[in-house]
Amino acid sequence: MGQSSARKKPVKADQFLEAEYLEKLREKFQNPVLAERLYYLLVWYDWKAEYHKHRYNFYRTVTSLLLGSITILSVFAVFYTEPFISIATVALSVLITFINQRMDQYRYYENWVRYRGVAEKLKREAYLFLNGCDPYAQEDGKNNERRLARSIENLASEENTHWKNLFDDSFKKFQLNNEKASRSTEIPL
Fold first, then answer.
1. Is 2 helix (H, G, I), strand (E, B) or coil?
2. Which residues fall within 8 angstroms of residue 25, CB to CB, at 6 or more apart?
3. What whole-number distance in Å separates Cα of residue 122 and Cα of residue 37?
4. pLDDT interval class at 142 (50, 70, 90)
């Protein structure tokens, strides 16, 4: 009865664990900046994974519904010869093609898996550090913090390198396509 009538926003289990990590890390760390950095990375990668997961699932659901609609329209086309049915079928097919192209372009599934993997690696490092397991089983807290800092920054650096390489590859493909297009439109003298 002592609770307010305002409804509290539900907290996901992962968000609770991350907040719990931050408190435990603040207590255990001699360097609060490292605790904040680890917390920031945990939240960011978890959020990005959730974002891409929701986008992927949304587009897959819409595509499935549109495919089902095409099937229903095809059944109606057998009994009715309305031009609307043909136009709607073609429009839905184009929309499905557009959605699939967008999913391929933004790589929602691949990004979801990649971000989730990094988030889980960061959580693993935090668990190992908080519980004093190898490689953080040494007595000297400064060395353990340095080891953890190196480990989480290596993970972040690997991700940055991956995205840089992905961008470079995409940019090179874009340049090649532009060069091919300009060569094919040139008029020989």
1. coil
2. 34, 35, 38, 39, 126, 129, 130
3. 11
4. confident
Residues 6+ apart with CB under 8 A from 73: 85, 88, 89, 92
* Other beta carbons within 10 Å of 76: 13
Three-class SS of 65-127? HHHHHHHHHHHHHHHCCCHHHHHHHHHHHHHHHHHHHHHHHHCHHHHHHHHHHHHHHHHHHHH
Domain residue extents for the chain: 13-168
Closest CA to 39 of 142, 162, 125, 160: 125
Find the length of the chain: 189
Each residue of 117-130: pLDDT tens digit? 999 999 899 888 88
Burial class (CB in 10 A: 0-12, 13-18, 19+), 25: buried
CA atoms within 13 A on the CB side of 176: 6
Fill in the amino acid letter for 118.
V
Compare 167 and 99 and report the one with higher pLDDT.
Answer: 99
Q: How many angstroms separate the CA atoms of 142 and 31, rounded? A: 9
Q: How open is the CA angle 14-154-141, to the nearest 5 degrees?
A: 75
